[in-house]
Design brief:
By secondary structure, this protein is α/β, with parallel strands linked by helices. Helix content is 50%, strand content 15%.
Length: 450
């Protein structure tokens, strides 16, 4: 049991594409020198190190790293060449090792300062390293020009291979006929916390590339309008635990599953008879209007003060609302008290077409909330309704869920989920074709058996 608990908390990160490309680049560098015929002045390790340093997550980053590496190498090789040319003119220095080391130190200073003078301070360290690599074997160097030239050649080999490897992309198929459903609770700790920037970057990349993504939330869209409003969503999001479909670009609700008017009246009277206060969440003319019934408790006031500043919801002090607009009711308190209330009302839920959910209440220490929805307001029903709306203009669309089994525990979990989404949106083309053929064969077999 202890071992199982320990292994459940270990994050085994899959091998990323950058790691694989770096491995391939290093291998190609070493094979290049093998095919070229290894020579004493060659340093294949220099080319391999260059490839490792230059490799980036994208081709533009690799080019920038390669250019910096090349500038640093030129500076270091230049001063190293001058050192190897000038020092032999003074034979007495060859017998005084301390003097050689002092000169090497001065050469390092020149290499560092030269990079700063040409306004490339980021390559200063690299220039000093190359200088030391060029002169470190003095006086056992026959040709200074060859020594400097081979250091430049090694860097050129490494940078060229790194750029070439990073430019190669596996054949992939972009599945723009899929609608990907992602739960927002898998992307951030709670509704009051922002989605990590690294996750937003990947999400923006997919949306700009044409991926159809529908975010699914247990809460109202007000929590996400500020952070997500600038992203180019082409598909509405599912909000309020499946009670509504919201178009974040148009700031409008596309579909709402309200509580039946008779059920709303019955539920409010029952809660009143139990001397309970509660929030009433309504949607009227695309506005999320929130009312409070009863005396505001201390816990409710904490939640109210925490969220009332949002410009995307309206807290109203009266009780003038239409029963048909009621989407859900919410009670705030301790979990054990809310569980008692739910258990008392549970026997009548099926008759009144209601369902109840208890969730932790962010912003309230050791607090929870009890939500009452229509029994037909579920994530599954909202997904079906959204697909029906989308297929009116694109009949070939198909749904695809990307969920995290463990939920959000750290930013890494959200990043891993986004990687799964990217792989699902851009699968490796040969494997995708193979899977499609298998699906067609299974479908044909089922038809034949019928």
């Amino acid at each position: 049991m202890v071992l199982r608990s320990f292994t459940n908390h270990i994050h085994l990160q899959p091998i990323g594409q950058r790691i694989v490309k770096t491995c391939v680049a290093v291998t190609l560098c070493l094979l290049f020198y093998m095919l070229r015929g290894y020579r004493g002045e060659d340093m294949p390790a220099e080319a391999a190190i260059t490839a490792i340093i230059c490799m980036h997550t994208n081709i533009q980053g690799t080019k920038e790293n390669a250019l910096s590496r090349f500038f640093g190498t030129l500076i270091g090789a230049f001063w190293g060449f001058l050192f190897l040319v000038i020092v032999p003119m003074f034979p007495a220095l060859s017998t005084r090792l301390w003097a050689l080391f002092v000169l090497m130190g001065l050469g390092t200073l020149l290499a560092l300062h030269s990079a700063v003078l040409i306004k490339k301070p980021d390559v200063a360290g690299l220039a000093a390293i190359v200088f030391i690599c060029v002169v470190v074997n003095y006086p056992d160097i026959e040709s200074p020009m060859d020594q400097a030239f081979h250091r430049i050649l090694d860097v050129l080999v490494g940078t060229t291979i790194a750029i070439a490897v990073n430019a190669v992309r596996l054949p992939r198929k972009k599945l723009k006929n899929r609608v990907f459903f992602i739960r927002l609770k898998d992307l951030r700790p709670n509704q009051f916390m922002e989605i990590p920037t690294t996750v937003l970057y990947r999400l923006q990349y997919l949306l700009q590339d044409g991926a159809k993504i529908s975010l699914m939330s247990e809460h109202a869209p007000a929590f996400y309008a500020t952070q997500l409003g600038s992203l180019p969503f082409s598909v509405p999001m599912i909000v309020m635990d499946g009670a509504a479909i919201y178009d974040i670009n148009e700031n409008a609700y596309r579909w709402i599953q309200s509580i039946d008017s008779n059920s709303s009246r019955w539920l409010m009277k029952r809660l009143e008879s139990m001397d309970l206060s509660f929030f009433i969440y309504t949607i009227h003319r695309d506005r999320n209007c929130i009312f409070h019934h009863g005396t505001l408790t201390e816990a409710e006031n904490i939640v109210y003060q925490h969220v009332k500043k949002s410009p995307y919801r309206y807290y109203l002090d009266d009780d003038h609302f239409t029963m048909a607009d009621v989407v859900y009711l919410k009670l705030v308190g301790k979990r054990k008290d809310l569980e008692k209330i739910r258990n008392q009302l549970q026997p009548t839920f099926e008759k009144m077409k209601l369902r109840a959910v208890i969730r932790e209440q962010a912003g309230l220490e050791n607090g929870s909330s009890l939500y009452f929805y229509s029994a037909y307001a579920t994530m599954e029903q909202a997904q079906k309704q959204l697909m029906h709306l989308l297929r009116q203009t694109e009949p070939d669309l198909e749904p695809h869920e990307i969920f995290s089994e463990s939920g959000f525990r750290s930013e890494y979990d959200a990043i891993r989920l986004m990687r799964r989404l990217i792989r699902a949106y851009e699968p490796f083309w040969p494997l995708y074709r193979k899977n499609k053929r298998s699906d067609k064969a299974d479908a044909s077999a089922s038809i034949t058996s019928e």
